[in-house]
Amino acid sequence: MTWIRTIPLSQANDELRQAVEGQKALYPAEYGTPIHPAEGGGSEIVASHTLIPQALHHAFSTFGALMSPDLPLPRRHHEMIATMVSVTNRCVY
Fold first, then answer.
1. What pLDDT does 17 receive?
2. pTM of the model
3. DSSP state of 89
4. Distance between CA atoms of 60 and 71, rounded to whole angstroms?
5. What CA–CA distances, in Å, run from 35 to 43, 52, 60?
6. Which of 67, 62, 89 is nearest to 78 (CA)?
7. DSSP per residue, 15-63
8. Which residues pair with 37 in a beta bridge?
9. Which residues contact 34 (CB under 8 A, 6 or more apart)?
10. What b/e string do you get for 12-47 counting C-beta neighbours within 10 Å, with b at 16 or more?
11. What local confidence, expressed as pLDDT, does residue 14 receive?
C-alpha cells in the first residue's frame, strides 16, 4: 500500500485516465496483472504517481519503451537489467 494519497481510477479525470491507459499499452502482456494491486485494479507503483498525471505518463512510458521487443536485446536481458536495478534500489517491484 502506498503511503501517499492516490486517486483511484474510478475518480480519475480524463488526463489521469489517459495516462494510466496509455502506459498499460506499452508494457509487456505479462505485466497486465499487478502483483500488488491498488484500488481500482491497477498496480500500487502506478497509483503512487496519480497526483501528477504528466509524471505518470513520462515515467512509465520510458519504462515501456525500454522494454520494447523492437530493441536489440532479448527480453530476458531486459528483465535481468530491470531486476538488478530493483535489487540495487531495494525495490520489491
1. 92
2. 0.69
3. T
4. 17
5. 7, 23, 17
6. 67
7. HHHHHHHHHHHHS-GGGGS-SSBPTTSSBHHHHTTTT-HHHHHHHHHHH
8. 43
9. 41, 42, 43, 44, 46
10. beeebeebbeebeebbeeeeeeeeeebeeebbbbbb
11. 96
CA distance 93 to 83: 9
The residue with greater pLDDT, 47 or 12, is 12
Of 19 and 92, the one with more pLDDT: 19
Q: Are 11 and 51 in contact (CB under 8 A)?
A: no
Q: Which pLDDT value is given to residue 2? A: 53
Q: What is the pLDDT of residues 26-85, one digit of tens each?
A: 877 777 777 777 776 677 888 888 999 999 999 888 888 888 888 899 888 988 988 899
In this structure, which amino acid lies at residue 66?
L
